[in-house]
Structure formats: C-alpha cells, structure tokens
Write a structure and sequence with these properties.
single chain; alpha+beta; three-stranded antiparallel sheet; binds zinc ion
Length: 226
C-alpha cells in the first residue's frame, strides 16, 4: 500500500531544514526556493528571474486582474447592481462581477499567486520591470528581454530544432527564413543541412526545448534602467 503523503506550505527558512533530507520531489522544490532566494530581490522578482533563467526569456503580456498585489489603488471589489430585480436590490454587490483592472502576466503566469490577482500595468512598468532589467544587465544574466522602452536585450535565445526530413539538429539562427503570409516578418523555415523547407500547413522543424543564449555585440542602453 502506498504511504500517505502530506502537503504543507513552508517558508524559505523552514524549507532549508529539510534541504538534503527529503525525497527527490521535495528537494526539487527546495532547490527552486534556493535559486529564487539567491537573487536577493523581492519574492516576485525572484520568481520571475528563476523562470527566466530556465526559459532564457523575460516576457510579459497584458491581462485582466481583480486586484494588484503591490499598490493599494486597485483593491478587490465587486460592481454593484444598477437596478433592483427579484433576486437583488439596486446597490447590492454583484458577486459575479469582480472589479477588473488592466494588469500584466509575466513569463506566462505565476506560481505564487494564481487566478486574477496580480500586478497592475503601472506597478509593472514603474516597479518590477526596471528592477528586473537593472539586475539582468548588471549581472549579465543570459536572458532575452522582451522589447521595451527601458533597455535593449543583450542576449538572444537561439532554439534548437530538429529537421523532419534528415533528423539533424540545428539552431534557428542557422536556418533559412521565409516571409510570413502577412508579409510582416520572416520565420525560420529551411534546414541548413538538407534544405528541407517547412510550410505553414505542412511539415515543420520541431522545437526541441534545448537552446543556447547568444550575446549581441552592439547594444546601447536607452537609459532609465536605474
Ligand atoms: Zn499596482
Ligand atoms: Zn534536414
């Protein structure tokens, strides 16, 4: 019979107490915490940086949030009914309609807080992004930073793909490129070894998950990264 397992939430200090003395599964969480804590920033930045080191990228996109974790100008709340009905009175909270604010989802989502709670756009651009960018540049972390107004990325992620025809691995940077249908850019399409071309609706050279980070020689800081 399988042994019973317990779940528990621990602080960083408590996690250190089981460091090296636990199952592989638990140790991976301890290691994750040690990586995050090692950056020495706030826990939100720490978590973002740890993920960025793993994926090679710092990205963000717009999303809707129901409150901001950082500032107090965007609290949880609900819109009120504008008129009475059989089920509610005018002015009552509509619990199906939480407040919505424009927010940011970094690196495809958080672990420490999920759902609709998050970071508002103002806090992202004024607090977190400048802090992250400064740390990445100063410590020369091999992370590709999404296009922004503060700084240009020093590194580019170069994905390894595998050819559907010859089975050889290649870097995206070595591949021939083709224009997109919209004509607004190009995409990597051609195997440098056998010449096989991927088509939008046909065979494609699959991304393997391996990658390398390439340093871009000429970058200029736009300033404001302080
Ligand atoms: Zn905020
Ligand atoms: Zn090939």
């Amino acid at each position: 019979m399988k042994r019973k397992e317990y779940s528990v939430s621990l602080t960083y200090e408590e996690l250190l107490l089981i460091d090296g003395k636990c199952s592989e599964k638990s140790q991976s969480i301890v290691d994750q915490a040690k990586t995050e804590y090692g950056f020495g920033l706030d826990y939100i930045c720490n978590e973002i940086l740890a993920k960025s080191m793993k994926t090679g990228k710092l990205t963000w996109r717009y999303t809707e949030i129901s409150s901001c974790k950082t500032c107090d100008t965007k609290p949880y709340g609900y819109y009120k009914y504008a008129r009475s009905s059989r089920y509610h009175r005018k002015g009552d909270c509509n619990y199906n309609a939480p407040f919505k604010y424009s927010g940011i989802e970094p690196n495809g989502g958080f672990i420490s807080f999920s759902g609709m709670s998050g970071i508002c756009r103002k806090c992202w651009y004024n607090v977190y992004l400048p802090k992250l960018v400064k740390y990445i540049i100063e410590n020369d972390l091999p992370i590709e930073i999404q296009k922004n107004d503060i700084v240009e990325t020093k590194y580019k992620k170069d994905d390894v793909r595998i050819c559907f025809n010859c089975g050889e691995k290649m870097y995206e940077s070595e591949m021939g490129r083709r224009s997109t249908l919209m004509g607004d850019g190009t995409y990597p399409s051609k195997c440098p070894k056998c010449g096989a071309e991927s088509l939008l609706l046909g065979n494609s050279h699959e991304v393997t998950g391996e990658f390398t980070m390439r340093k871009i020689a000429h970058t200029t800081e736009k300033g404001g990264a302080e």
